[in-house]
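REQUEST FORM: STRUCTURE PREDICTION
Request ID: SP-0412
Submitted by: Lab K.M.
Chain count: 1
Length (residues): 465
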Amino acid sequence: MRIYFGQTHRATVLLVLSILCTTLLFGFLTSQFKPSLLLLAVAALAIFTIAFLRSEIALYILIFSMLLSPEIMVGGMEGGTAASRGVTLRFDDFLLAIIGFGWFARAAIYKDLGLFLRTPLNGPIFYYLLACVVATGLGIMGERVSAKTGFFFVLKYFEYFIVYFMVLNHIENKEQVKRYMFCILVTCFIISLYGMLQIPAGGRLTAPFEGTRGEPNSLGGYLVFIGAVAAGMFSRAETLRAKVILGALIMAILLPYLYTESRSSYAAFVPTYIALAFMCKRRGLMIGLLVIGLLLSPFLLPSNVIDRILYTFTQPEQRGQIVIGDTRIDTSASARIKSWKEGLEDVPNHPIIGYGVTGYAFMDAQFPRVLVETGILGFVAFVYLLYSIFKLSLLTVKRTEDPYFKGIAVGFLAGYVGLVFHAIGANTFIIVRIMEPFWFVLAIVAMSPTLEQASEERAQRQGLL
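STATUS: Completed
RESULT:
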């Protein structure tokens, strides 16, 4: 009895001392730092703890933060380079860093968890990142790149791949995939409703928390991609309830997509639809509907959409327009074409490794930007990565038999084709609001054959028992 009392007494004393020390520590920190910073520190610690103990919950938080988190424009970047628009940091950048540290800590303690699962994309990702790092490092040495600016931009590239590997390491079964996809689609529905609320005010639609200058191109690309994923799932849905829900989401996406007035997003629609049609059973019917839709589009589309498309060729004569034959191209498209032309003309100055990330003037087009910034080596690595993504997703479409997994793979592949076309007029593959959900879904696609096989083996064992 005396031993029990002694153990209880010591535990009570330790508890009181712990509370006292914690109170004194917080009191000291409160006197030294702003309360807002302390709250952020406490929140970061809480998220780190969640990521360490329950990584799945942390990934749910990350999904909703992808499109529903505020952003901060970090100014003061040096040079007239691609950083002239500033470096945009968002809440999910910090969230991803915190979750990533929790993931690394958990993997360090529990050795059997692993860190990077082996997939066909590991090599291509490494080669592209290596090209970006080397090109930027040489650009810093050659004083073409600001060290701070180049560091932040390349760090963002790392972020997307961290999302991919984190999801790979935490997917265990089909039920978990369903929960992730539900959160992704719910987030898209919220974004679509937010877009609809902007329509009466006029102007082009943007995603929430984008500051005074939004990015309609980013929202358009995001809606094209998630809309394609939803359409792929719709094409393979086995229940009427699932078809109704997915159909409603697709209809909700359509209106804000049109009102983004993003010509790059409009250009992405047709190849996305065609890719989806060729992976569906009724491809003839779908192609026919596309042709009819295109023929009737002048009568069905909102006037602002038609005006936006025609504006490319009907803008009144202004300085800076490019003239092709008898046709004048509007100033926005002309500026893009000029930047591409100037960039390609300057490639011979640094042909092998490029100017470095952010080492050249801003270019709103993915492919010439990669070529100028990372040279021939980086461009080849980038194209190899794109090819590897296409090959992986196509093999998943062919190999999977489970309708749910096949639907996700079909939708992803169609959306991916659309994003490649979207990248002609935008930096699609470095836009965080597009790339975070893109790499998240790609991880699910990569794991689908493994999860399907594991599910079949589990069913066979249960049948034997």
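NOTES: The CA atoms of residues 284 and 427 lie 33 Å apart.
Reviewed by: T.R.
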